[in-house]
Amino acid sequence: MLFLLLSLLLSLLPLTLLLKRLSTTPPLAAVPSTAPIIGNLHQLGLLAHHSLHSLSLKHGPLMLLRFGSKPVLVVSSAAAAREIMKTQELVFSNRPRSTIVSKLLYGSRDVGFSPYGEYWRQIRSLCVVHLLSNKRVLSFRAVREEETTLMIDKIKQSYSSSPSLAVNLTELFKSLTNDVVCRVASGRKYGEEGRFKKLLGEFVDYLGYFDVGDYIPWLCEVREIAEAKRAITEDKLEKMPYLKAVIKETLRLHPPGPLLIPRESMRDTQVMGYDIAARTQVVTNAWTIGRDPTLWARPDEFWPERFMDSLVDFRGHDFEFIPFGAGRRGCPGIQFAMSVDELALANLVGHFDFSLPVGEELDMSEAPGLTVRKRTALLAVVTPW
């Protein structure tokens, strides 16, 4: 009996040692159940940021999903985003390879999607110095003011000819954005020649990888600007803190890119105690972080006043508010984008009252796409103020 008992204990010793070693191994992030072949793709709806938000409420702020055979780490908290974009920024500075992106963006040679390395550093430096530095952005002031004045004139002409006719503000915003981008990049307006429409695709990614006109429509219910009988110039914008608060609150609730451009880990690492393998894609849900009730009071309410006495900004230093990303792979075109938005919004609400067409309600539902935008165009009846 003693011999048998000793033999049993010796046979269990390797298993005991193995279990002890496994107990000290860092766990994987939460892994929702997957389907064969497709992994978690079936759990993504048309609006992926909503689907991933729902999953994060169940599984936590770090989830390891499978998109097909590819591991994807989904980040849904400010603390985890800080770990990815600041603490371990160098580890997560690469972009995953994508056949679609490669075909659309010249072999992923653009500043947004090119792999991390010397080529990316050079083109980003060229982009920032020659197009998006504060000095260069200021030098384009005349272009922004001229194009904004033309937009206001179009609205006035529309009112003069048909006072009760609703104006498609979404199309006007798109035209404004395209004309500013093309004039800055090529010296020609967007609609002057067909080839400049193609050129737009080559330059839009320098402005943050989405059309800044996408989120101006959310702002037009706000009215806080005076001097309606004259054009509002950029030198007056610094005196409009509420205008800036409105833009911040809009970006918090409706970031145009709710899922930031994916990153990829360049080596094995740990994030908040979890093992993350090399070449894992990382998707950050900025939409979820911007509505986190542990970070924001009244998180689902449009309340611009929250920013009036707050130092929180969208330039990548405050990880509870990262509509443009952060770190070395953050958007280099923030200043350019904001200069267009602030000037356009100030002049719109400074010149006009807006109302919805009779019998219609404001549709705030979202449409899927490369960027998230309103499902329906913003139509409004305008009245000179």
Automatic annotation (TrEMBL):
InterPro entries: Cyt_P450, Cyt_P450_CS, Cyt_P450_E_grp-I, Cyt_P450_sf. Keywords: Heme, Iron, Metal-binding, Monooxygenase, Oxidoreductase, Signal. One of its GO terms (molecular function) is heme binding. Heme binds at C331. The keyword Transmembrane helix does not apply. Pfam families: p450. It comes from the Eukaryota. SUPFAM superfamilies: Cytochrome P450 (SSF48264). Its cofactor is heme. CDD domains: CYP71-like. Belongs to the cytochrome P450 family. This is Cytochrome P450, family 71, subfamily A, polypeptide 21. It comes from Actinidia rufa.
